[in-house]
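Below: protein 1.
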Amino acid sequence: LKAASCMAKLMGEVDLSDQYAERAELSAAAYETICWREDFGYYVADVTIKDCKYSYGPGCFVDQLCAIGLSSACGFGCSFDAAHEASARKQIAANNRVHSPPFHDLQKHFFPGDTGITVCTYPNGKLGDGMKYDTLVSIGFTYPVVAGLLLDGNLEDAEAICQHIRQRHDGRNRSPWNEPECGLLYSRAMAAWNLLDQACGFSYNAPLGHMGFDPRYNV
């Protein structure tokens, strides 16, 4: 909605731009009101025991803030409360980190000694049977979390999670040039470019001819 608002403004559709901007604010506020759990420190699904089939419910879901990498590169920053987003990503880093053994991933990509971020865990309990794919590990889900951690300035967790990925794909058990988690040559792995954007603090605005950098590292 933020992007649609900007595009409408560029096309001279000022009223439409305002409508999109208003809806962006309303939807973000609704997500905060309905899904944020202060006692958990992350966002949950708005479901009950009656309609929770295949839902992560109160679980800690890896994709609760998946758009942050592209959003930041486009200059929009956080979609919701920045402190809440930072807290949610820190909770993902803490709760969803799994190690084999004893963890068994859904698609059997893990080898003994591997560590990664799984789709969902339930540190505060679950509704029903929980999420169907909660033991899936995919770098396509993980990289946006890392991009957000870089934006938050949480370099410790960002670097640790990246190190887990590189250890899994270091050439011993897998090719370092392909990361087949959730599919071979899977397009979602392109989310890795979010890391370069966020490490550099990259932003780009073609209509204004603007390119900006706000490095997360003092090098």
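Below: protein 2.
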Amino acid sequence: VRDAAARASDALALAEGLAAAVDEAVKPTCIGVYLLCRALLRDGRMVGLAAVVTLLINKLCAARLAPNIQELTRRGAALEAKLRTLHARFRQNVEPIAFCGGGTAERRVIDSCYDSVEEHYKNEVRDGLVYQTVSMFLLYGDMLPLSMMRGLSAIHVWKRSQSLQTGGLSAAEFEDMWYYDNCTKLGFNTLSKIAAVPEKLAVLDGIAQGVVELVEGLERA
């Protein structure tokens, strides 16, 4: 089995990835869906339409601009496993290597593998830069969603509040506007987490492929 000891760490990475996905994607998604539904019940279709349109635009951008996260994750895990294997072999055999004068050759091999890992992650950042920039503009709460939230809140006040006509604001209207604004704000602030669910799944799938390759290799050994 190639790089078996190093690839075994993929199982730990998969478990950590699952835990991180629950904290960073599943929980915020549930909270965001709940809050958006609450805001939707208070002001009809505007909130749901705005959220769905934003997510659809992001999905179209992902289809056109996003790199193959699954393949990048799988290749990155394989390169890291190879580097860990070479480094561990060098440490375990440092005396025979030094005795035979092979230190320079071993260093060239390890440096070449390290350069491959570094180049891979540079390319990963470079390939995803445009998509990440567009995604941040569409989904992060202090960018486009902020303008949408303010617009929805203004429409809500215009439709529901009598303060513009009477010159005063009742306690019930204040509570309604505060509740609506916070549900909308917190709901839209989780859009980035909701949109990141497919990416999290792709990362987990890429890690899981390494675990599957390890298991299949051990079964054939």
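The chain has a mean pLDDT of 75.
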